[in-house]
Each structure stands twice: as C-alpha cells, then as structure tokens.
Amino acid sequence: MLSQETKLYNEGIHLEMGNDFMYDEMTLLHQARSLDQDALAEVHNRYYDSIYRYIAFRVNDAPTAEDLTSEVFLRLLNALRDHTAPQNTLRGWLFGVASYVLKEHYRSKKRDSFTLLHEDIPADEQSVDQQVGEILQSENLQAIMSGLTDDQQNVLALRFGFGLPIREVAQTMGKSEGSIKMLQVRAISAVSQRIMLQGALA
Asked: What is the mean pLDDT of the chain?
C-alpha cells in the first residue's frame, strides 16, 4: 500500500503534468534541487515510465510495480529536501534507487523473482528482436530467469525494461560496452535455450 506521503506526492506531481517545460538534465537537476514544482513535474514526466518498466520487469504484478515506482520518486523527493540528491546523473541515480528498492522488496518477501508484466508494456517496446520477443512471451519467465546471474538479469531489465542503449547500460553498471554486449548475448542465449528445452519437454 502507498503511504499517505507518497499519495500526496503523486497527486501534487500530477497537478503539474500539463506544463510544457523542457530542461536538459543538468538544468533539471538544478531546478529540482530547489524543489521547483515545474521541475519536479518534468522529472516525473521524463522518467516515470522507464522506471516503471524496469521495476515491472522484476516483480509479480502491476500494483506492486506502481507502489515501488512511487517509492523511488518519493526517495528522490526526500533526497532533494535533504540536499543529498545526485549532482549530475539523474537517470543513473534513479536506477540505483530502483535497484535498491527492489532488493528491499525481495528481502521483505523472502524470495527472489524475475517476472515481466508484458501486458503492461507497449508491444512496440517488447519486440526488440525475435529472441527477446520469445523471452517476453514465455509463460514461465520467472523460472527461466531465475537461472541467470544478477548482472545478466540487470542487463536484460535495463535494455528491454528500462529501455537504455548499450552505452548507458555500461555507464550505469560500471562496465565496458563490450562486457555489456557479452552479458546480453549470454543472457538471451541462456533464456532461449531454456525456452526451447521447455518446449521439447512439453
């Protein structure tokens, strides 16, 4: 359940959604650190969907994904109030918070799951290529993904849930682009093999 403060924060942000303000990220951060309502609305507009997709890629249901996404933005608001907000990389900071919120969620449930809510993600963002399409349509995705390493799961979530290009995934995870490409290839290969094996055993 959303806390009252989270609900009030979301309501306040949505009141500002109609403003057509455009910022580069540095300007946006500067304005947001001043708790400027237009800047906060722009942060919400710009990053909510991608953070939601990343989290939805890792949890069991849409309401949980919505709650955890709201928690990420509430923590950003608290960081802005406490003057501990990021100085230059807002998207990377939000991913880091989202990753931590997910870990807290898993600990609270005493389980580790990896489920994609493909019904909540637009079809044009699902079909990155045929292999990824098969992954997203798998009915047993949670069991299939459980065999991947954390890095492999994060690469798939960032690439096809968060929608980041290879370069930004590498920056976010602190790895080289070559390493990210290899992780992605191995993850897709492993998942595809599991899907084919399940089909053969069906």
From this structure: 74
The identity of residue 59, as a single letter, is V
Q: Could you tell me the two tokens for 50?
A: 């991608």
pTM for this model (two decimals): 0.61
Query: Which range of residues forms the domain containing residue 148?
Result: 123-202
Q: How far apart are CA 108 and CA 147, in angstroms?
A: 21
User: CATH no. for residue 56?
Assistant: 1.10.1740
20 burial level (CB within 10 Å; 0-12, 13-18, 19+): exposed
Note whether 180 and 199 are same-domain residues: yes
More confident of the two residues 100 and 143: 100
| Whether residues 82 and 127 fall in one domain | no
CA distances for 149 relative to 40, 59, 114, 138, 155, angstroms: 35, 16, 11, 19, 10
Same domain membership, residue 150 and residue 62 = no
Taking only the tens place, the pLDDT of each residue in 144-194 is 677 788 888 888 888 877 778 898 888 888 899 999 999 988 888 888 777
